[in-house]
Design brief:
Jelly Rolls; elongated; alpha+beta; Serine Threonine Protein Phosphatase 5, Tetratricopeptide repeat
Amino acid sequence: MWITAVLVVVVLGFVGARSFFIDTLATRLDIGDPAAGQMVDSLSEAAPGNRNVHLLAGVYYEKTFDVEDLDRSLAEYQKAAELDPSDYMLWMAVAEAKDRIGDADGAKAAFERSLELAPNYADIQWAYGNFLLRQGHQDQGFPLIARAAAADKKLAGPAVSQVIQMSGGDLATTQALLGRDPGVNAALTTALVALNRYDDALRAWSGIPAEMRQGDYLQTGQDLVNSLIGAHHFRAAAIVAADLTQDEADKPSVGQVTNGGFENGVKVRNAGPFEWQITEGAEPQIGLSEAQKRSGRYGMTLIYTFRPESSRQVSQQLAAEPGDRYRFSAWYKSSLKTDTKFQWQLIDIVNGKLVATTAEMSPTDAWREVSTDVVVPRNVDGLKLMLVRTGCTSSACPATGMIAFDDISLTKE
């Protein structure tokens, strides 16, 4: 009796090893190999009850680009599904194979079976939804595509592209068909920017919940800001930039200087598009100072030690209302010794033309205000505020000493 038991164990072990070997071949075989066809047929003969073997054969005969092999591919997928009827992916493969040979009714039935097994999986929703669209059943297909896009952010972009093309770019139709899921709105934002439809892109962006704009869709917002600035839509860019900024004090506002009191610090690198921009360099030394302040905790100081021929630049991009009048004001203290003149200027970003400039900032031990009236050109909504020096009497243009700034503002009149 013990001999019989040993033989059973040996035989079962051989069968198990053989099954493992066939499974390994079936799941790892390179179907692009010239000898793959012969191996597929050999595996099918050796293991007719192995679902992986039939799945492999289905894939192989689908990829031969021989129309006559499409029926063989379908038969292999069907056999795999019969061997493992609870696997939704096998039924989806059957559905797509039937679709390829023109059996629409059979494809629909197989898609339904796959969706029944995995009702919440994006891949079957997407595949079945697209099949229904091709069959002219938009009322059934778009809801499935919308569910797929909501479940998988990677599908939102293709879904939006499909509907925009079908609807002629109509935003309301697109949202009606796909819904207003955040992923859909984010994909709509990107697609509409690519079409240079910035107002519609801004409307789609506003449909994303505020907390998600600073999280999952931060990059979408940053891309939108850059596109809006590149298209010279500075007010819209400032609105989106504010959506992306967590600290209320750092949020840009139309017609205002951001962080004009320097209470939230300044960045030498990676500053936002509406924050203070300070170029790198050794001269002047730029930083915050608790000693040199007019109000609050900090002022900003610039310390010159010899010559500013490669002077670091201080500037800020501003959004403003076209045609409006503003008053620009800045407070300063200066111990500079130089022949050059330091002034604040506001430049039309689009045309590079000077819009307004302050008087020269002469040395003073007490805080002193410089100001100027600003009339924004009617055809632009962006200004660049810059600290500039003019009137150099030599190429060296030396300067020594310190100049400090605080309470810089732009106020609508």
